[in-house]
Fold this protein.
Amino acid sequence: MTTSDRLDATAVGVVTADGKVVRKATIAGSIGSFVEWYDYGIYGLLVTYLAINIMGGAEAGGLFLTNVGFLVSFIARPFGSVICGYLGDKLGRKSLLATLLVLISAATAAIGLIPSAEVIGVAAPALLLLLRVLQGFSAGGEVAGAMSFVGEYAEDHRRNYAMSFIAVGSFVALMFGSAFSAVLITTLGDDTMTSWAWRVPFLLAVPLGYVGFYIRRKLEETPHFEALRERNTVVRNPLKEAFTSKRHLKAIAITIFLPALNGPGYYLLFVYMPTYLKTSLGEHDFSMLQALTVTAFSLIAIVICIPLMARLSDRIGRKPVLAISAVAMALVSYPMFLLITTGDFALACVGTTVLAIAFSGHAAVVHTVLAEMFPTTVRYSAYSIGFSISTIIFGGSAPLVMTTLIKATGSSLIPAFASIATAMITLATIAFLRETKGQPLASS
């Protein structure tokens, strides 16, 4: 056995010998994911109030500009991916992930402190866009980093299950944000919410960020990355390594197209859904409280289903679960959006819940597959760059494109067609995947 093999075996042995270490890493990754995606998701949940206060009105123009703020954050993500990916593969995962929590929490809290457009005029939307850039930069480095961190601790035969709780953390964050916003609206009223209380969920980022930072700082570096350090094989330039290898370039291309369904699945079904229900159904528009409640039902469903789908993936493979989820989304999107657009509260809950269950297989598995495609030397860099490009194409533009197309066509079923189209892209990409269930992570 070579020195390299012995060090890799030691890295694996560290985590398999002590399940407590794996659980600690999983909990830390999940809590960090909760904080990060609460900060990121609350913007989408409260976009209508931002349009009124920061952009000067909730009419189409104000909502359009606010959705531009959504898109801007995604354009910033590749910059975060490049810089954070490079640092993560060069210096390690732990400290960088803790720093990213501080950055996004500070940016989120600052959004809650922006004076209204009536007070500072055009400076209000300018500040909002700047802070969205900072949020996007942080998010660009978060997903791949957190997934790599937990994946490099997890046991081979249970890796998807362990990593799935990071996805659970992101959806619980949206659920918490929805519930918290709904409580504020119920207790304070929509007028008070519009006046000043919309700021409270953003300011909550301060204590949440501190908790997440404290937990992440207490962790040790991953055993797989430590093994690279031990044998002095941390690559000098991870980006050059990723972009000069045909093997890595092919994997990056898959990383761009495989998560296509993630755009409509995550950003339309959960982040954008409250705004869609409140502003895009014409005479069937919901109140914000109803819209948040409908979204909460779908969030509960997906939080329950993700660990189950991950366990199934660890048993039967990544590709079958991804394929089943893509086919399910293609089949149910149109009829479920028909239910949603009736304006009936109960039918909308059924529609969003069925969509959430169909999407859960993709949400549970896709990030595990992306992490398993790359070796430890370039995992953070290559994974984060590919996924960030994917989110720009299929996710970040979704609210802006949906708002524009719904207005232009008069059809509130546009999101259904987007879901079907991206499900087919994901399904086609699965054909190029290599099954990675139960296999050890590559080191180089």
Summary: The chain has a mean pLDDT of 86. The CA atoms of residues 272 and 341 lie 15 Å apart.
